[in-house]
Amino acid sequence: MSAIFYGIGVGPGDPELLTHKATRILGQVDVIIAPKSRDDRASLALQIVQAYLRPQVTVHTLLFPMTYEQETLDAAWQEIIQTITKALDQGQSVAFITLGDPMLYSTYIYMHKLVQAQNYPTEIIPGIPSFCAAAARTGQPLAEGKEHLTIVPAISESDDLDSLFAQADNLVLMKVYKEKDQIIDRLEKHGLKDQATLISRCGLDGEIIVNNLDEIRSKPVNYLSLILARRKPQK
Which pairing describes strands 196-200 and 225-230: parallel, antiparallel, or unpaired? Predict the structure, then answer.
């Protein structure tokens, strides 16, 4: 393969949910960049794709700090970019693997911008977002007819959330693990709690589906958790 930087979405967790194109490219590239959030934690993205990799592929499992401190992020990104561009300069193809889709709240987006700015060729291979898998798993439609769908990272400022909740027909709330109880309160305030479901580790070992959100108040949930919510239809 030529020296191309690929961003590959590996989906929500089930290795069978990768696209055919993703598995083909994964079986051909020279280098894999697998992000992890902590030194003591394995890369889930790497676990998902392991069966599709060539024995001789070079794998770099690199730390992506879970912080919004720009100085810390810049230092980490520069180190990762150097690993990527060094391989590309040697004529190797590089695939950055990421959970869900590369262009939706993904660490890949930052790498893509930095690599593209240096005029290396890039290609993005989409993946199934976690909320699509969660909707399929629970049988809960994301949107019907003329309804709107609002996708919200639950780390948004509280003032922003109230206005979004008040107007939403259907909500996807991502990254709810830190602000779960606050989110549940807001869902109740805006008439969305009774038709809300929390899905944790969708399609993976330890999957949890909770239809009564009051049951999980004050209880910790896994990082890979989201909430799907729908407004009750008007009578």
Answer: antiparallel
Same domain, 83 and 164: no
Considering the domain architecture, whether residues 113 and 137 belong to the same structural domain is answered as no
Domain of 50? 5-125
Nearest to 33 by CA among 132, 114, 104: 114
Q: 147 phi and psi, to 5 degrees?
A: -65, 155
Q: What pLDDT, in 10s, does the model give residues 100-132?
A: 999 999 889 989 999 999 999 999 999 999 999
pLDDT at 40 over 60: no
pTM of the model: 0.90
- Let me know whether 58 and 100 are in one domain: yes
Answer yes or no: is pLDDT of 68 > 70: no
> Number of structural domains, the chain?
2
Which residue matches tokens 């479901």? 197
Question: Please, how many CA atoms are within 13 Å of residue 191, restricted to the half-sphere of its CB?
Answer: 8
Q: In 3D, which of 217, 193, 201 has the Cα closest to residue 209?
A: 201
**Residue 114 within a domain:** yes
Other C-beta atoms lying within 10 Å of the C-beta of residue 57: 16
Residues 6+ apart with CB under 8 A from 104: 129
Domain final position from 125, 155, 177: 125
Dihedral sign from CA coordinates of 218, 165, 175, 79:
negative
